[in-house]
Amino acid sequence: MKIRTACKADMPQIAKLHSKSWQDIYRGELSHIYLTRDIYQDRYQVWQQRFQQPLTNQRIFVACDNNEKTILGFICFYLNNHPQWGTLIENLHIDKSCKGRGVGKQLLQTAARLSYEEYTAHGMYLEVQASNTGAQAFYQKFGARHCKTQQWQAPDGSLVNEYVYRWDSADHLKLSMPHTIRAAN
Fold it and tell me: pTM of this prediction?
């Protein structure tokens, strides 16, 4: 597995993986019509905008198989997004078949390392669906703590309960990076 900076050519795979992940995670919380008919186009538009008009603090990385053709997971984050909480982990999604293989950990460590290198004094945070206990356990395993409860208005108009998790410092997450980050070709 390799971690590299995402490129525009990765956009369709990222949108597809994001859509599939949401179909699994949000089943029963977002409308059936959105999850079965509208989701791919919606996520494709989000990623198209992110690649065509990236914010200066936006970073996107993908985890690929060794031939770098298949995306196993991705992370999108915004460095120094919040004056108190630091870097926002906007998206972290892993292909179902790759869960438990360290893909999420390596992507999270990539974000932590870059966040720490550029904004040493700040931590990281993310929002996670209240019913997504698997993701919550994953973040807690790496030291994140629940600090806020709120509602998210989903693209289909649904209100979804979510938690904000945060790390006071990205320092401990960046340790023991087992891979080298490469720029996309």
Answer: 0.90
